[in-house]
Specification:
Two copies of one chain form a homodimer.
Chain A (H helix, E strand, L loop, with lengths): L3 H8 L3 H8 L7 H14 L5 H8 L4 E6 L5 H16 L3 E6 L4 H13 L4 E4 L3 H7 L8 E4 L9 E5 L1 H14 L5 E6 L3 H16 L9 E4 L3 H12 L7 E4 L2 H13 L9 E5 L13 E4 L2 H17 L7 E4 L2 E3 L23
Parallel strand pairs in A: 1-2, 1-3, 3-4, 4-5, 5-11, 6-7, 6-8, 8-9, 9-10
Antiparallel strand pairs in A: 10-12
Chain A binds a DNA duplex through helix 2 and helix 4.
Chain lengths: ~350, ~350
DNA sequence: CTGAAAGCGCTAACAA
DNA sequence: TTGTTAGCGCTTTCAG
């Protein structure tokens, strides 16, 4: 394992000069530069990043703190972040918090200890309120969640609008008794609920509290909540799931109950995943530009690293409604007593 | 940002003593220990991991190098690795290689530069053969792939057996003309092909080269390969996909072709994912103990860190066959001209 | 344009 | 039991 010292010896220069050459620094005679480069080559020298980081108090690692990498939304984002980081010569430290504020705190600490260059973070509501009061020695970019007055860059979906649009779609299709399952730990769930309610209100559809659930964003919880919703009488005509994990649970519950989609109950969700187009019927949903979110977040972080005093940016991306088979218009459905009225095909 | 020096001053001891206390070292008077701990508390001191790593030449980061985090198999493994690492006080550096040997080399280099404690790695065939000749200053645990004579721990599925069992299942269900799509870059694909062929041979079913494809393990490629297979006459009766990404593509292709599963073509795959039980019909597959694989790999790595000269271990796990609707017996199928002979339900 | 020297914050001999 | 000291490998003033 060659060190800078050995390279310096081999090239007949000081370590300072080697360092300069490696940093592409100015004030080095081309001839000397060539000699150093040759020595680097010959010894297969690679700078020790740990030493570099200790000395320069900077590093080429960025932290990515998400609640669960198994959530397809975060999986896609991680991939995008990793790709963008790689391009820029950075590596990614990945952490899962399970939406657990304690783990969030621990990992944030760890980021400090590990001297990361910066962090991309998707905090729980609980942590977001702390975030403004805490001091970090690295920049943070918030993704997916909103942290109102935080002095940090963020990139997120227009959740209110997206949920409004999705709910509106359900209403337009003729559904009235619409249930919603939202993630309880995130601001995202709240915002989507607001969009959901706004659409209902606008159409003078009464809000039925029993039809709105806030649960942890996990398939089990989504399933359980759906089971409870399905047990109500009258049964909801449609169900909106606030993310892919909840939708997964909802679908499992509907299947287990032997109900047909959309005839017995329509289903709409957030997040395009590998399976949403493969199930029968394919799911109507709001697709988030996950790759874009990850790439943008990384870009914001790197830009801020470059210029710590640039103005704070908040990037809001739009989701796109993918209307598919799980929410076909109510009137098109061959109802037992309406079949005669419905044109064939 | 308190340093060990300040803590030492505050506690009225030397930095060495602080270090000892922090390392839970022996030979420290309880009274002094208490004083140090108090100072640590008071100053909210946290050791700088970078400095620690530089000095001790060890670190608490483990590298995880997979081909694509979006592959549900690797997603699940990453999660398990991260959990186990967290438990043990380690963090995870995540890297995607896209089965690209160049990227594999770069990341392996990077691991060296970053001074990681160890690496969990799923190499391409191409890299695996190099692996034995390369020297690393950290232990590597191989997952998913096999590296025959490598002096390193590994944990993988009994791929031959699993593929044999899955193919055997198809044969038992009455299928004869069986196609297979395998990943081209991994040893895993090869081994599964061998199990596949062995099962066919054993049943005296002729091997038809046109029915075996090796493609990159991506949905697009799986779809394309399936399209080609479906275009053949006679069409295959069943299709075996060697992993979840290929199965995703295969399913998309079958859907797009307007074919029914299993009536027109049966489908069997590897890897339990969120969607395999949600599609209609649910997919028959070999479920891999992903969490177990990740946890075991991490365990092997930590154990080796603890004792570098312990004997090399190769952990082989068994997959479990989940027989479901996508491969129901051929004779049970209500065929147009057989319906009369088939007992209802 | 180049080198000497001073650390970054920590650990680990070695002394005391 | 504790302190002194010498670095880990690198970057970065400051001189020359």
């Amino acid at each position: 394992m060659a060190t800078i010292k050995r390279v310096a010896e081999a090239a007949g220069v000081s370590t300072a000069t080697v360092s300069r050459v490696l940093a592409n620094g100015p004030h080095v005679r081309p001839e000397v530069r060539a000699r150093v480069l040759a020595a680097v080559e010959a010894l297969d020298y690679r700078p020790n990043l740990v030493a570099r980081s200790l000395r320069s108090q900077r590093s080429s690692t960025i932290g990515l703190i998400v609640s669960d990498i198994r959530n397809p939304f975060f999986t896609a984002i991680s991939r995008a972040v990793e790709d963008a980081a790689y391009e820029a010569g950075y590596t990614v430290l990945l952490c899962n918090t399970d939406e657990n504020p304690e783990k969030e705190a621990i990992y944030l600490q760890l980021m400090r200890d590990a001297n990361v260059a910066g962090v991309i973070f998707s905090p729980t509501r609980q942590t977001s309120v702390m975030l403004t009061t805490m001091k970090f020695n690295f920049p943070i970019v918030i993704i997916d969640r909103s942290v109102p007055d935080a002095p940090m860059d963020s990139v997120l979906l227009d959740n209110f609008e997206a949920a409004y649009q999705l709910t509106r779609h359900l209403i337009d299709q003729g559904y009235r008794r619409i249930a919603g399952i939202f993630g309880v730990m995130s601001t995202t769930g709240r915002e989507r609920r607001r969009g959901f309610e706004e659409a209902l209100r606008e159409s003078d559809i009464p809000l039925i509290p029993e039809l709105v659930c806030f649960v942890p964003a996990r398939p089990e919880d989504g399933k359980e909540a759906t089971m409870r919703l399905l047990a109500q009488t009258p049964r909801p005509e449609a169900l909106l799931a606030s993310n892919a994990l909840l939708a997964e649970g909802a679908l499992a519950a509907i299947r287990q109950s032997g109900l047909a989609i959309p005839d017995d109950i329509a289903l709409a969700s957030f997040d395009e995943t590998p399976w949403t187009a493969l199930v029968e019927p394919p799911l109507t949903l709001i697709a988030q530009p996950t790759h874009d979110i990850g790439a943008t977040a990384t870009d914001l972080l790197l830009k801020r690293l470059d210029d710590p005093k640039r103005s704070i940016r908040r990037v809001i991306l739009k989701g796109s409604l993918m209307a598919r088979g799980s929410t076909t218009p109510i009137s098109d459905r061959p109802k037992p007593n309406a079949r005669a009225r419905t044109a064939p095909r």
